[in-house]
Amino acid sequence: METRTDQIERFAARLLETPGLRQLPGLQKEEQALQFLKTNGARIQPVFASLGLDVTRGWKEPAAIIARAVRLVVDKLLDKELAAIVGSRCTLSFFPGVAGGRQPPSRWREELLALVKRIAAHPVARGMLSGALAAVESDLTDRYIPEAWERKKYVYGEITRVQRLNLPSAELAELVRFILLVRSAPYLHVTPGSTAPNENGPGTLQEPFLQKILPHVCSLVPSLPGSLVQMAMRSTLAFPAQIEATARIAAVLALRGRTLVPGLIVDRGADTPDKSWLNVARRNARWHGLDSRLLDELYTISAENGW
Amino acid sequence: MRKIDDILESVVVAAIVLVLVHTFTDDLSILAGWAVGTRRWIIWTGLGFDLFFTVEFFTRLYAAIGRHEGAVYFFRERGWIDFLASIPLLLLNSFPNTMALLAGAGLVTGVGSFLNVLKVIKAVRIARILRLLRVIKLFRGIRYARSPMAQRHLATIITISVTVLVAWTICASVMESTGVLPGLEAPFTTGQAARIKSITTGDGSLAAVTQRAAEIAALDVSILAVRSENGPTLWSRFDSAYYEERFLPGDYGYHVENGIEIFTDERPTAQASAREALIFFVAVLLTVLGFLFFYAPRFALGISDPVSIMKRGMAEKDYNLEVRIPPDRSEDDVFELAELYNRVFLPLKDRQGSGSHESQSALSIDDVRDLVEKE
Fold first, then answer.
1. How far apart are CA B298 and CA B288, in angstroms?
2. Is B291 within a domain?
3. Shortest CB distance from B361 goes to which of A39, A127, A288?
4. Residues A62, A150 share a domain
5. Closest to A270 (Cβ–Cβ): which among B309, B358, B361?
6. Has residue A94 been placed in a domain?
7. Are A164 and A129 in the same domain?
8. In this structure, which of A29, A165, A250, B194 has its CB flanked by the most CB atoms within 10 Å?
9. Which residue does chain A place closest to B362, by CA atoms?
10. B309 vs A267: CB contact, 8 Å cut-off?
């Protein structure tokens, strides 16, 4: 016998698999579904009623019940997504290059997975993780970094001469992937409903705040070097602060991930998605606190490759 | 109801394609001298098509009048094309042709006033060109572009082009037949008229007429038969069976003078006319195809596609693709507008949208209703 909770959960699962959402990563599905409930809740009261929900006191309560069910379903999806990313896609191949030749510690996978799950469970950090996770799942790092490496221009110069990292492009892509996964950790210390630090615009985090919370975040992944965690956290700072090039790249890719739609069919006469986004982003570079020269180079790469 | 309308529209489009094939086949059958039996079927089929389109026109008109939109249908929705490509063709072409077939207006065996139908058939042969207006109807029935603006724009261009071509051809034919613009047929027709006069003038006795007919027919192969009006056949090039096997109304001419009836072979002029009609048919078709395959993509690339992208960008919060501006067309008004859209509007939209995480959902109310219905 199917209970009402089962029925609601089944409805939420099917909602997330509708054609408009099917191709999106879990967290983007959730954002879209919650946004839909928020803006159309009043119009779909008959739907709530058909699911056995009480609509006599308005639509907000039943919408909140559906929203909780959506989050539960997405949590299950996320568990699988994160396990796949941390369990098989991430290798920390860059680790010897940044830790004086040491191999990655044995517990790094469990610690990293626990951290990312913790981020995903926090209301504010979960929102920030969405773009970063989409960027990781779409392999944006593997597309842009080898290209930038081949060009040996701004990105190459910033990484090799300023940041003084001497890594092959594949390991560098892996480092940026790691930064993307960890960069939302500072938002674990942001209270829901407070003045929202927002990676889509001004109001990004400040250096002193990061310094203050660094020990706690490091304690969540004790076997990983603090400098590595700090680099990932500094990716949330606004340029032109002194930020490592790898962190700047991660900031761009995380923001790109927020509006990424996998398998998007480009209309005839329109420019490609990445090229369009990067062109707008470089015009708004200061607004978003991003490195405009970095954006220029990524824009050129996307234009040359038809991305 | 909507489904029935769609089916009926599809039937009309299919009928238009078939009638164009029929028009082509009709002229080809005359030019290639196909068997009379086959051509007879073509004439009957032509009547069927013209009746179908006449009914279609009256149905559409009746429905439009019922909605108090009769004038809108006739003028704005190109009902005048439905009219011109149906009723005049039925009255001036298919109906006289089939009447002649039914009445047995056969060469030599034909009797009475039905033979006068032949004169009508020849005089209004030009009306067949009106069939080509159906190319416009065909074009109207096919949704080839997503943008209503592109659809309407191209429909207007094609309507103007085809209508001007058809109207001018009809005018030229009228001028040709009235002698204002003599055609290639003129020397042949004038010579034939002189020879007919030679047969019908002079000694009116049957023996003398027969003698003159035989002498002149030996020089002019277009003279087929000479008959005393409502009387016996005086001279004939072939027997009746031959005529029945090879001639249809329109293939021969009928002349009466001084009580003498003369039948002439009009197949060469009919073939010349069919050849011209085929050339014209192909010209119209190529014009339309040229617009469809060369102009329509250019229109889409240069106008409707950029407009559609900008429209979506302004209407949909999450649609942020830029308009691709071809370097060689960057000075076009539309692309100047697109450049402003890319350079000014999208960055402003990005900033405005960056204040919150809220975005327009990819879900629609219908998606959710569908889900409940499936439950």
1. 15
2. no
3. A39
4. no
5. B309
6. no
7. yes
8. A250
9. A20
10. yes
